[in-house]
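The instructor's notes for this session suggest beginning with a concrete chain rather than abstract definitions. Hand out the sequence below and ask the class to guess, before any prediction is shown, which regions might be ordered.
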Amino acid sequence: MADIERILVIIPTYDEAENLANIVPRVLEQDPRIDVLVVDDASPDGTGEIADGLAADSERVKVLHRAGKDGLGRAYLAGFRLGLSEGYDVLFEMDADFSHPPAALPDLIAALDETDVVVGSRYVDGRVTVVNWPMSRLLISYFGSRYARTITGMPIRDGTGGFNGWRRAVLEKVGLERVQSNGYAFQIELKFRAWRAGFRLVEHPILFTERGSGESKMSKRIVREAVWRVWWLRIQDLVGRL
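After discussion, reveal the predicted structure:
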């Protein structure tokens, strides 16, 4: 595999003022090749201003301000496009709330020496590595991933997981302009497109911990989108229109 020289960790934010100033330094200290891009959706709690302050203090921090709250998937797509235009070799998705442990980044980066996509997985080898989630949330996530795997045939146990690393060649080929999902389904759709395009996906175990500060962005609408979108993906693939 080609050497990895530049890594961009994309952190989408909406009302993450309590977490952002803490997580960005933790991410940067994991590897000198890492830069951070904060994609803020006009957070009313001042997250965007905190991001600007971090960027002013470090050339390794960048900020992309968007006009309003427009969904996780679209935030990542905007971040991917910026990262690709600036020549990054690897682009990571990562939450701002410490549910995705920054200390896992070195192992995830190392895994990309042998694969095209690495998935920070909560469900590997029959184990569930989730801390402090209510049982209802855990069941939605676990069975949602099993549901997606069954319908799509994709060999990934954590299809809805959001701690993922992508080699730039994957994002250049999958057709980001065709991605239509925006919540949990976004994570499923991007992995599915990469798999169907012939790229290699590897799951690496992580310890997922429920956020300690701020509020979850989960909603019934996001769950409903994931339920029907996997069928849409499967049908689009079957008719050759993916």
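Then share the key points. The first helix runs from residue 20 to 28. Residues 7-238 form a domain with the Spore Coat Polysaccharide Biosynthesis Protein SpsA; Chain A fold (CATH 3.90.550.10).
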